[in-house]
Write a structure and sequence with these properties.
single chain; two-stranded antiparallel ribbon; 6 helices; about 50% helix; about 10% strand; globular
Length: about 160
């Protein structure tokens, strides 16, 4: 989700929620919230805000059960980033910048002519994320990822 800045972030989030509820009401089963359209004139709605806003809006509209929310974001790089998005209502997360970065590192290593050590690196990265998620969910008393989904157990600490 991106905003052109003309109407502000609040209007962009409202439009995103309206479009999401319209799509869900019309039978769409998967909504992809992507920040790929960012350029010099369009800023991304922060992915935790976009996911949480759409998740809560669809709950209020009685439509959340109809759709899965996929966060396709360049912001997610670490396990905690994925955990945050899942806790805010994402059914799945595609950390495309992190995956592209890992793949680029493997290509750069291969270009040097050295024996590549990064074979299968994107798969290893995804596996590491999968192993890290249960560790985070267990810290808040949730033994499974589905129980953690939409729990909104994260909060900002130290902000006034």
């Amino acid at each position: 989700p991106v905003t052109d800045g003309a109407g502000g972030l609040e209007l962009a989030v409202d439009e995103l929620c309206r479009a999401a509820s319209e799509a869900a009401a019309n039978g769409c089963g998967v909504l992809i919230l992507s920040d790929r359209g960012v350029d010099a004139n369009r800023a991304a709605i922060p992915s935790p805000l976009a996911v949480s806003a759409v998740h809560q809006h669809l709950i209020r509209q009685g439509l959340r059960w109809r759709v899965s929310l996929v966060a396709e974001t360049g912001e997610a790089r670490e396990v905690s980033h994925l955990a945050l998005l899942i806790a805010y209502g994402a059914s799945a997360v595609h950390p495309y910048v992190a995956l592209e970065t890992v793949a680029a590192m493997v290509r750069a290593e291969a270009a040097t002519g050295d024996k590549p050590h990064g074979a299968g690196a994107p798969e290893k990265y995804v596996r590491a994320l999968g192993k890290g998620l249960p560790k985070i969910t267990s810290k808040v008393g949730s033994s499974t990822l589905p129980r953690y989904f939409g729990a909104q157990v994260w909060e900002a600490v130290g902000w006034r």
